[in-house]
Batch of 2 targets.
Target 1
Amino acid sequence: MNYDARENLKAYLDGELDPELAEQVRTALEVDAELKKEAEFMRSLSRSFSSLRPRAEATREMAEQAAARLVRPHRSILRAPWVWAGACGLLLIAVFARPLFESAQHELSGQDAAKEMKQDSVREGAPAAGSVEESQAEAPTSAPSAAQSEALIQESSITVRTASIDTTLREIDSIANSLDGSIEVDPGSIATGPNATDKTILLRVAPYRFDAARKQLLSIRGSTEASVQYRNVAEEIHRLENETYRERSSQQIDSFQGQLSRLRDLAERSTIRIRIILEP
Amino acid sequence: MDPVAQRAASGDREAMADIVRLFYADVYRFCSRIVGADAADDATQEAFLIALRRIRVFRGESTLKTWLFGIALNVTRNMKRKRLPLPLADWDHSNSEDPSDQLIDAERLRCALAKLSPEHREVVILHEMEGLSYDECGHVVGIPSGTVKSRLHHAFRQLRLHLEGAESA
């Protein structure tokens, strides 16, 4: 059998060969019975593939429904009647509630003055404790920050020196519960078990609760923060998303997807690594 | 560039809907060849969702259809990591009117195709079943047309071995 002709046989049958090579294959087919037999098989295989039909095809209704679902008409929000009703309501509230607001503000400014006087007296006695209590009172658990929209990874590392690991763990557990967080055992933690003198755990919280969690943890006696890091990975995520849609080997795509899910996980749940050291 | 793609790229939502209407059946059929009819609907919707999000970066270097097939191919590759269906599970031969057409049994074709590597199977489906040229297959898969030629050559050799092996067994 003519091996050059055999290499080009499929392309010849598909009409994808340049004229010079096609002529060579044509000549080889005339003299090589085995090559001719292979060509017949290839034609039969091609016909068999092209005659396969699906038992169910997409209907025009399916396409219409998909178009309606995927491309929603762009409506200006100003056309919605409820927007105007809401705006009028807010205007009325602003007009009528203004006197009430002004009087409340007046009362508050009086309270602030009294509070400031009280704080001055505290600072003279115990400045550190006073400032921690103040920051705990304003735990920002109201609205998500830019952390979620920017894909920000927030990580902190806190060390707690304690006389009882169990007591400290209970305190951390209570903080985690109050912030809807979760506690994980650090996979890199060496010393574990009931008699461990050094334990590392991870507190995972929603990004907008990261600062509140740090503040509450730093209020535990014997705690210090070794580091805090912020890293915006939005571009990295975007790059990896694009990589998974290019021609890659399965292993490369798996690797990109692994990195992608790790970054997304870290951006969705901020991490505080807490090392608890037993100091009897 | 395709005028519909051009309008869609500039944010025309009606043009985007037209793209879905025009190519939904083609993309659905292509997906169903790879992941089966049950998952084809999800794969098609996912492919169009990505396509409409990325239509602004479509440069018209290939036809809109091959560009959509490229996206659909990647969607099906990702889906296949989760479940591995038999290719062409719901496909059968149309009734051929020509008695000289000696077609290979659909079940045997399916089994032989399943034994190919994903790279070889993809070009067989794109070229033999979707009727794309070597250049178009290259655009979809993201490889030169010379590589398409060599993959098809090797795929057909493998298919012959599998089919003849099954016959002798």
Note: The beta strands of chain A are 52-54, 152-162, 182-185, 198-205, 223-232, 270-278.
Target 2
Amino acid sequence: MELKLITANLGKINPSSIDDYLAHGGYRALQRVCDATETVSFTHDLKAAGLVGRGGAAFSTGLKREMAIRAEPTHPYPAPEWIPERYRYSSSFVVCNADESEPGTFKDRLLLEGDPFCIIEAMTITAFLACATVGFIYLRGEYPLAYERLTHALRVARERGYLGKRILRDDFAFDIEIRRGAGAYICGEETALFESIEGKRGEPRAKPPFPTDKGLFQRPTIINNVETFANIPFITLEGAQAYRRYGTKQSPGTRIVCVSGAAQKPGAYEIEMGTPLRYVIEELAGGLKPERTLQAILIGGAAGVFLKPDEIDVPLAFESLDAIGATFGSGAIVVLDDTAKMWGVLLRLARFFRNESCGKCLPCQIGTQRQLEILERMTQGRSRKLEQTDISPEELRLLRDTGAVMRDASLCGLGQTASNAILSAFDKKLIL
Amino acid sequence: MSDVTLTIDGQLTIVPQGATILQAARRLDKQIPTVCYHPHFTPPSLCRVCVVEVENARVLAPACSRIVENGMRVQTDSARVQRARKGLLEMLDSAVDLSDAPEIQAYANAYGAEPARYGAQIKRRAFPLFDDNPFYIRDYTKCIMCWRCVQACGEDAQYTFAIHRAGRGFDAHIATFENVPLPESTCVYCGNCVQACPSGALKPRREYWLEHGLDLKELARVSQLERREKSGDAK
């Protein structure tokens, strides 16, 4: 069911007015954290709340924070000279991943444009608990309005003492800087994002070491998606029990799903975890246009998988999607009706990954190119409606082999998921 | 420093903390093929040919850079590993001219790679020959993008930073900044990159042209001509 937990303020408050935000309960969570005599309980609470990352990987946010807090600073202190002066004295960093580039995903943009102070507050809370003095928002370059609103919000927060030195108490200093992406999908990968902030080529690093050990500038770093951060003030204020009231046992809370494609009312909807996909498409998004039938649903973005029309009753929660071999991913739901040309969609996906591969590791660099070529060969010189029987088994095996190598051997999530959607279309016999 | 106990192919072994899987496996005389790894450079872990299967891990791990952990169980030659290596070498062979890389060819044969599966109408690495300096040529059709030259030029040896990585995806390649000819770059002709190149993409100029049928006299004449042209003495 639709449930406004983290989007409650969207459209209700003036995103450029901190007074409006304060009047709607803003900065109460930060006040609570700053007044607390012990802070361990907040991280325990976050773990108990069962919040997992909303960017796609679904890693426990509480565990991530705990790992970063516990990480031993292995780097010499103060940091070496290649680190810019103003970052050298932060023992850890808080980074907000707002490089939302997964096709079909637009939830972070709405949160940043509609409620920028909430994200800033959540980052400040995290920074206080992790002893960070510098935070970064890595913002997608194509979001000029979000940039303006964030810049404004940061300035106002600084003026009002919610950022900068002595935030709510004498011994807490924290500030946030915005970094704008330049259009690379790969820079949404956390380690590539760090490289980008450090001024290097946006290419992923080998993991481990994980960001919680050696992240930005080789320091322990907490990096979360915008939507994940948006959950933090609520959990901090209300506690784990209150949060667990929503959603399912294994996937508590809510999720913003981004419906696009052939729906009548495409858009972002916040739903309680466990809401059936059918409800989202037919009730919230208004269903298909009259006299159209459902052909397929791409869930989780380009790195997600296709669902067949008869899988539309799956509850949208991590465990139930896992059970049918799908993934929630970034929350993108692309609805394809019978007018969509599946081959065109597959070619487009393959082209996307070919274009966005950074070219660092060989399986992704060559594999994404080969995957596109195989698909192009399959469609070449044939009628628009391609029967599955037209495909030679050798070609299909080659496509599967290429996909398997990319999935097993690639350096980062891009290559590992580049074949997911395409192979799932073949597995589910959606090609006709 | 304490020691770490792990199992490699069912064999219990104890190695010092901080060792990589590759180092641990080599102590047990296990052969793991490597392409981009060079013992003197930071492992970039990008060729992925050295991948091994770590129990309970979602994906395969590069042996060259993964640090061993207590209780780790590693398979260096499982069916999954073999499939990945075969596929990788197939891809590499289908994209790059490996004629000067006997080591990689040997791996490809050993793992039964069939690059011909990808057909003939495929994109391969195509670059003009860069013969812009008296010392070495750059033939990037043979480049496997292992970065060893960039590492040798940069932070792992020379600190010259004359070459870097450019382009993305399949078009990623090694280039000088702004694609200037090498003499206009910061290159000091130390030769470290030539030595590090595993696939013959970087080669001493004289060696290259001798291989391509020029005899020494001809080569001398060509260089003389070039020198004259350069000095503006076009007689």
Note: Chain A has 16 helices and eleven strands.
